[in-house]
Amino acid sequence: MSNDPGKPDFSNVQGGSSTVPAPKPDFSNVQSGASTVSAAAQTYTVVGGDSLSKIAKHFYGDANQWRRIFEANTDKIKNPDLIHPGQVLTIPPAS
User: Fold this and answer.
1) pTM of the prediction?
2) How far apart are alpha carbons 91 and 43 in whole angstroms?
3) Residue ranges of the chain with pLDDT lower than 70?
4) Exposure string (b/e) for 32-44, b if CB count within 10 Å is 16 or more?
């Protein structure tokens, strides 16, 4: 323990590491309803940490189906690697 009041006391700090898991996407904001794609299409509002593959995994059970979501939203997404929280995406129905 340091007696110098100007220096922080780190005498009780223990070594080790900690990992914080990435937050899981919250799909509670998914809405069913009419859309220009079809009556069975849904919308989804992007949240932080989302990617098209994560969204595809949730809706289709296959992350490799991300292109279906991208192609249904080319008016909103120019680069499939760049989606932003708050974007409302149309989710085509599973075929």
Assistant:
1) 0.60
2) 6
3) 1-5, 10-39
4) eeebeeeeebbeb
